[in-house]
Amino acid sequence: MAGNFPLRLSESVRQAAEKAAERDGVSLNQFINLAVAEKTAALTGAEMVARRAARADRARFDAVMSRIGREEPQAGDEV
Fold first, then answer.
1. Whole-angstrom distance, CA of residue 40 vs CA of residue 6
2. Tens-place pLDDT, residues 14-44
3. What are the residue boundaries of the structural domains of the chain, listed by start?
């Protein structure tokens, strides 16, 4: 659901955003929308990584990593 949101930017930030939007060939509105989407995605990704890290098992990881390099390459894995 789209909607309007009044946004107050400092003059210098607004001017920099307008120039960047012009360089990208998009409207200021589209530029700000993309910036918010990128930041939201970054934060969501960081939260996901933190949740996965919290349930990680270091002993299991070390056990798997210790097997690397001990097996011969299978047919088709040659360089």
1. 19
2. 999 999 999 999 999 999 999 999 999 999 9
3. 11-66
By the 10 Å C-beta count (0-12 exposed, 13-18 middle, 19+ buried), 63 is classed as exposed
pLDDT of 20? 97
DSSP symbols for 8-70: ---HHHHHHHHHHHHHHTS-HHHHHHHHHHHHHHHHHHHHHHHHHHHT--HHHHHHHHHTTTS
CB 28 within 8 A of CB 21: yes
More confident residue, 8 or 79: 8
Residue 1 has pLDDT above 70, yes or no: no
Q: Which tokens is 44 given?
A: 């969501």
